[in-house]
Every structure is written in structure tokens, then in C-alpha cells.
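Quick one, C-alpha cells below. Sequence please?
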């Protein structure tokens, strides 16, 4: 059987990777923790909760995020979930950008965490 999205071989209608991205796309409008910048997908995690997904070099960086709808966010706990697959880019288009603040200069990578 082939995945209905990416056409890879799978045992169900949709492969695991496409199922994960489909779930993210469904939560696109209601999930305020989703950050999409330059085709990459990030999740803002609770500041008090560190997980294996938030560990690594990007954990120590501060991120100021300007969303296209005018909302702003600041976090030091963000997980990079990778490049958005081509099949989902139209449903998961960029919704924000990382902005550099003078007091945060040098505290994050130019392209965001995990890059």
C-alpha cells in the first residue's frame, strides 16, 4: 500500500512521518506554540519543563519571536522539529520570524534554534 500523501510504501493509508505532519497541520490555527520560520517547524515548550527534545545547544539561547498576526513571544525553551516537507508547506507556511533584540544579541543562532 502507498501513503496517500508522499506515495511511500506503508502498511496503512498514511506513513508515520506524514501522519505526524498531518497532525501538526490540523493544529495549525489553534496551537500557539507552533513557530514556522524559513520553512522550519519549531515548538515553544514550557519554560519550566525541559525534555530530551529541548536539550542541546539551542537550549541556552533566548528567542524573541514576532508572529505575522502581531503577537510576540519570548522563550528559552524551543524544540526544532525539522524542515517542513514539501507536501505540507502550503498548509504550514511561515507564521513568524526571529527578531534580534539588543539585549539578546549573541544569544541565539541567526536562523533560530537547532540550525
Amino acid at each position: 500500500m502507498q501513503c496517500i500523501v508522499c506515495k511511500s510504501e506503508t502498511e496503512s493509508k498514511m506513513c508515520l512521518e506524514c501522519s505526524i505532519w498531518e497532525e501538526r497541520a490540523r493544529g495549525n490555527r489553534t496551537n500557539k506554540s507552533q513557530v514556522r520560520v524559513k520553512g522550519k517547524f519549531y515548538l515553544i515548550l514550557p519554560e519550566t519543563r525541559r525534555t530530551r527534545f529541548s536539550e542541546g545547544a539551542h537550549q541556552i539561547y533566548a528567542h524573541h519571536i514576532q508572529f505575522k498576526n502581531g503577537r510576540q513571544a519570548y522563550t528559552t525553551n524551543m524544540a526544532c522539529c525539522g524542515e517542513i516537507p514539501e507536501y505540507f508547506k502550503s498548509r504550514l507556511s511561515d507564521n513568524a520570524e526571529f527578531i534580534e533584540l539588543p539585549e539578546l544579541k549573541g544569544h541565539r543562532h541567526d536562523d533560530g534554534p537547532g540550525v
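Helices lie at 16-26. Strands lie at 34-37, 40-44, 63-67, 72-75, 78-83, 96-99.
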